[in-house]
Amino acid sequence: MSLFNDIEKVLITTDDLQARIAELGQEMNTVYSDDDLPLLVCILKGAYMFMADLTRHLTFRHEIDFMEISSYGKSTTSSGVVRILLDLETNIVGRNVIIVEDIVDSGTTLDYILRNFATRNPATVRVAALLSKPSRRRIDVPVDFVGFEIPDEFVMGYGMDYAEQYRNVPYIGVLKPEVYQRI
Ligand code: 5GP
Questions:
Q1: Residue 8 lies in a domain
Q2: Mutate to test the pocket of ligand 1, among 44, 69, 72, 85 (most ligand atoms within 8 A of CB)
Q3: Residue 102 alpha carbon, nearest atom of ligand 1
Q4: pLDDT at residue 135 tops 90
Q5: Given this model, what pLDDT does residue 137 score?
Protein backbone atom coordinates (compact mmCIF):
# COMPACT_ATOMS: atom_id res chain seq x y z
CA MET A 1 0.00 0.00 0.00
CA SER A 2 1.30 3.47 -0.92
CA LEU A 3 2.34 5.81 1.85
CA PHE A 4 0.01 8.36 0.25
CA ASN A 5 -2.97 6.21 1.30
CA ASP A 6 -2.07 7.06 4.92
CA ILE A 7 -2.85 10.74 4.40
CA GLU A 8 -6.22 11.99 5.61
CA LYS A 9 -6.06 15.51 4.19
CA VAL A 10 -3.85 18.09 2.53
CA LEU A 11 -3.37 21.18 4.67
CA ILE A 12 -1.06 23.17 2.36
CA THR A 13 -0.65 22.28 -1.31
CA THR A 14 2.66 22.16 -3.16
CA ASP A 15 1.69 25.27 -5.17
CA ASP A 16 0.76 27.25 -2.06
CA LEU A 17 4.01 26.22 -0.36
CA GLN A 18 6.11 27.30 -3.34
CA ALA A 19 4.26 30.62 -3.73
CA ARG A 20 4.66 31.52 -0.06
CA ILE A 21 8.31 30.45 0.08
CA ALA A 22 9.02 32.71 -2.91
CA GLU A 23 7.40 35.59 -0.97
CA LEU A 24 9.47 34.83 2.13
CA GLY A 25 12.59 34.89 -0.03
CA GLN A 26 11.64 38.29 -1.47
CA GLU A 27 10.99 39.59 2.05
CA MET A 28 14.42 38.41 3.17
CA ASN A 29 16.00 39.99 0.08
CA THR A 30 14.77 43.39 1.34
CA VAL A 31 16.32 42.84 4.79
CA TYR A 32 19.76 41.43 3.89
CA SER A 33 22.50 42.52 1.50
CA ASP A 34 25.75 40.95 0.32
CA ASP A 35 27.71 42.83 2.99
CA ASP A 36 25.74 41.06 5.75
CA LEU A 37 26.89 37.67 4.40
CA PRO A 38 24.32 35.86 6.55
CA LEU A 39 24.73 32.28 7.68
CA LEU A 40 21.55 30.28 7.17
CA VAL A 41 21.32 27.50 9.72
CA CYS A 42 19.04 24.66 8.66
CA ILE A 43 17.61 22.82 11.65
CA LEU A 44 17.67 19.15 10.71
CA LYS A 45 16.00 17.11 9.80
CA GLY A 46 12.60 18.71 9.24
CA ALA A 47 13.75 21.95 7.56
CA TYR A 48 15.87 20.45 4.78
CA MET A 49 13.30 20.87 1.98
CA PHE A 50 12.28 24.35 3.11
CA MET A 51 15.95 25.39 3.26
CA ALA A 52 16.63 24.04 -0.25
CA ASP A 53 13.64 25.84 -1.78
CA LEU A 54 14.04 29.06 0.24
CA THR A 55 17.70 29.60 -0.63
CA ARG A 56 16.86 29.39 -4.34
CA HIS A 57 14.94 32.65 -3.96
CA LEU A 58 17.69 34.54 -2.14
CA THR A 59 19.66 37.10 -4.12
CA PHE A 60 22.14 38.15 -1.41
CA ARG A 61 25.42 36.32 -0.79
CA HIS A 62 25.13 33.90 2.08
CA GLU A 63 26.55 30.72 3.55
CA ILE A 64 24.73 27.70 4.91
CA ASP A 65 25.28 25.35 7.82
CA PHE A 66 23.32 22.60 9.55
CA MET A 67 22.39 21.74 13.09
CA GLU A 68 20.44 18.74 14.30
CA ILE A 69 18.27 18.98 17.36
CA SER A 70 16.68 16.00 19.09
CA SER A 71 13.25 15.25 17.70
CA TYR A 72 10.02 13.78 18.99
CA GLY A 73 10.97 10.22 18.09
CA LYS A 74 7.73 8.39 17.47
CA SER A 75 5.66 10.70 19.61
CA THR A 76 3.59 13.57 18.18
CA THR A 77 4.17 15.87 21.15
CA SER A 78 7.41 17.32 22.45
CA SER A 79 9.05 15.78 25.50
CA GLY A 80 10.29 19.25 26.41
CA VAL A 81 13.87 17.94 26.53
CA VAL A 82 16.10 19.45 23.83
CA ARG A 83 19.53 18.16 22.85
CA ILE A 84 22.04 19.07 20.13
CA LEU A 85 22.73 15.97 18.01
CA LEU A 86 24.89 17.78 15.42
CA ASP A 87 26.47 21.16 16.05
CA LEU A 88 27.43 23.93 13.61
CA GLU A 89 30.69 23.71 11.74
CA THR A 90 30.83 27.52 11.52
CA ASN A 91 32.00 29.92 14.23
CA ILE A 92 29.15 32.46 14.47
CA VAL A 93 30.97 35.20 16.45
CA GLY A 94 30.01 38.49 14.79
CA ARG A 95 27.93 36.74 12.11
CA ASN A 96 24.40 37.50 10.95
CA VAL A 97 22.58 34.26 11.57
CA ILE A 98 19.24 33.15 10.13
CA ILE A 99 17.75 30.08 11.79
CA VAL A 100 15.68 28.08 9.31
CA GLU A 101 13.07 25.95 11.11
CA ASP A 102 10.28 23.74 9.84
CA ILE A 103 7.71 24.47 12.55
CA VAL A 104 7.47 26.34 15.82
CA ASP A 105 5.09 24.55 18.15
CA SER A 106 5.53 25.06 21.92
CA GLY A 107 8.62 27.20 21.22
CA THR A 108 10.85 24.98 23.40
CA THR A 109 13.27 24.01 20.62
CA LEU A 110 13.66 27.50 19.21
CA ASP A 111 14.05 29.02 22.67
CA TYR A 112 16.84 26.53 23.36
CA ILE A 113 18.61 27.31 20.07
CA LEU A 114 18.29 31.09 20.56
CA ARG A 115 19.71 30.92 24.07
CA ASN A 116 22.49 28.62 22.91
CA PHE A 117 23.39 30.93 20.00
CA ALA A 118 23.34 34.02 22.25
CA THR A 119 26.28 32.57 24.19
CA ARG A 120 28.29 32.42 20.94
CA ASN A 121 28.10 36.21 20.34
CA PRO A 122 26.64 36.49 16.83
CA ALA A 123 25.98 40.01 15.45
CA THR A 124 22.29 39.33 14.73
CA VAL A 125 19.97 36.34 14.87
CA ARG A 126 16.66 36.11 13.01
CA VAL A 127 14.31 33.18 12.54
CA ALA A 128 12.55 31.90 9.42
CA ALA A 129 9.95 29.23 10.15
CA LEU A 130 7.80 27.63 7.48
CA LEU A 131 4.99 26.87 9.92
CA SER A 132 3.83 28.14 13.28
CA LYS A 133 1.18 26.77 15.64
CA PRO A 134 0.46 29.89 17.76
CA SER A 135 -2.20 28.17 19.88
CA ARG A 136 0.42 25.72 21.19
CA ARG A 137 3.02 28.29 22.23
CA ARG A 138 4.35 27.89 25.79
CA ILE A 139 7.43 30.06 25.38
CA ASP A 140 7.22 33.41 23.60
CA VAL A 141 9.86 33.18 20.88
CA PRO A 142 10.50 35.77 18.16
CA VAL A 143 9.87 34.50 14.62
CA ASP A 144 10.83 37.07 12.00
CA PHE A 145 9.69 35.30 8.82
CA VAL A 146 6.69 32.94 9.06
CA GLY A 147 5.31 30.96 6.13
CA PHE A 148 1.93 29.84 7.46
CA GLU A 149 0.12 29.81 10.78
CA ILE A 150 -1.65 26.48 11.22
CA PRO A 151 -4.12 25.03 13.74
CA ASP A 152 -3.16 22.57 16.47
CA GLU A 153 -2.78 19.44 14.34
CA PHE A 154 0.19 17.12 13.89
CA VAL A 155 1.37 17.64 10.31
CA MET A 156 3.81 15.79 8.07
CA GLY A 157 5.34 16.09 4.61
CA TYR A 158 7.63 18.62 2.91
CA GLY A 159 10.54 17.49 5.10
CA MET A 160 8.51 16.83 8.21
CA ASP A 161 8.09 13.29 9.48
CA TYR A 162 6.02 10.99 11.51
CA ALA A 163 8.30 8.27 12.95
CA GLU A 164 10.97 9.26 10.36
CA GLN A 165 8.62 8.56 7.44
CA TYR A 166 6.60 10.74 5.03
CA ARG A 167 9.31 13.44 4.67
CA ASN A 168 9.16 13.02 0.87
CA VAL A 169 5.48 13.96 0.61
CA PRO A 170 5.56 17.18 -1.49
CA TYR A 171 2.82 18.98 0.50
CA ILE A 172 1.83 19.45 4.13
CA GLY A 173 -0.78 16.97 5.29
CA VAL A 174 -2.39 15.22 8.22
CA LEU A 175 -2.29 11.45 8.68
CA LYS A 176 -5.27 9.17 9.21
CA PRO A 177 -5.72 8.41 12.94
CA GLU A 178 -5.19 4.65 12.42
CA VAL A 179 -1.61 5.28 11.19
CA TYR A 180 -0.59 6.18 14.75
CA GLN A 181 -1.68 2.72 15.91
CA ARG A 182 0.12 0.96 13.06
CA ILE A 183 3.50 2.74 12.92
P1 5GP B 1 8.57 22.85 19.80
O2 5GP B 1 9.87 22.70 20.52
O3 5GP B 1 8.32 24.26 19.31
O4 5GP B 1 7.42 22.33 20.61
O5 5GP B 1 8.62 21.91 18.54
C6 5GP B 1 9.47 22.17 17.50
C7 5GP B 1 9.87 20.94 16.75
O8 5GP B 1 8.97 19.87 16.94
C9 5GP B 1 9.86 21.22 15.27
O10 5GP B 1 11.12 21.66 14.84
C11 5GP B 1 9.48 19.88 14.68
O12 5GP B 1 10.64 19.11 14.48
C13 5GP B 1 8.64 19.23 15.73
N14 5GP B 1 7.20 19.42 15.47
C15 5GP B 1 6.33 20.26 16.08
N16 5GP B 1 5.10 20.14 15.59
C17 5GP B 1 5.16 19.21 14.62
C18 5GP B 1 4.21 18.65 13.71
O19 5GP B 1 3.01 18.99 13.67
N20 5GP B 1 4.68 17.71 12.85
C21 5GP B 1 5.98 17.30 12.82
N22 5GP B 1 6.32 16.38 11.93
N23 5GP B 1 6.91 17.80 13.66
C24 5GP B 1 6.51 18.75 14.54
A1: no
A2: 72
A3: 10
A4: yes
A5: 96
